[in-house]
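Please check these two lines:
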Amino acid sequence: MFVNLFQDPVNAAQGVAESVPQNPHAPAQTIDAWGQLPKLASTFGDVDGLFYFTYAVCIFFFVLIFAALLYSVIKWHRKTYDQPAASNVTHNTPLEVVWTVIPLIIVMVMFAWGFKGSLDMTNVPHGARQYKATAKQWNWTFSYPNDPVQSYGELWLEVGKPASFLLESTDVLHAFYMPSMRVKRDVVPGRYQKVWFQPIEKGEYHLFCAEYCGDDHSKMYAKVHVVDAVEYAKRPWDQWDDNNPAKGGESRYKALCSSCHSLDGTPLTGPSWKGLFVKDASGAIVGGQRDVFVGGVKETITVDDAYIIESIKNPEAKKAAGHEKNAMTAFPNLPDREIHGIIEFMKTLAGK
């Protein structure tokens, strides 16, 4: 973040919206009876079908092969050291054809099933709501249909409504992975990807990056809220307490900045926020001193609001000493009220 500062698929999606079962009390991440998957929360049931088909095939052939080996060991093991071989047969063509053709057929079934499911996830049904998910090291930004307000690290969806996502990466390879919705799609830099799903149960779910994307890949997480139509109409992604901007700033720190900037002086990819603002002898909060590079020349500046704003929108302007070789993602479209909230949160750290 701040380097210088701090399948039942397509046919199931249409006509389901009014009749999908809803259980608001169901825990979002409940695993199934086999302990294998989180609770299915979308219409992509074919993913589970393929999973368990593959699971069953693996178990069947493991038992079959192990039983054949065990039988052979017991039946044909050498009784004495000089016992001659029981047979001089070196191969059996019909048997070799059987154990080649049958697995080939099974693998082709798996391929066709999986390929169909993959296509279904990109074949967006008519009337799906269009969202955008932007991935960058190491956070998610979400844009909503016909709404200029974005959300960071949290996403809100309406239950029973197909949701289509245009996926974009601003830096390296990422992946849009929601286990409960049974969707995964690589987010490739320089190319738009798309994926869709229809949530069928209210609750809170997990969105992960499933492609290694750098030091803090494991922290690239977003929470997904599936809510009813009444709650969705309130635009919960645009709730901001102007009376307590520091609280909102703290939430933005956790969503956008915490992977690169510590609050306690611990060095991460970017410099710590500790000491950005300090208390003077009178107890007033003032800007701390910071060494930065401006045009390749090292300078000592006093931190102020203007420096913070510039660093968020144009992080290359003044890079913190010791981190001048690190790159930071710019946030030129971050709303002014949210930048103000971040600054207010930074000021709460003074004296800690």
Q: What stands out?
A: The mean pLDDT is 85. The chain has three domains: 46-122, 129-238, 245-348. Residues 46-76 form the longest helix (31 residues).
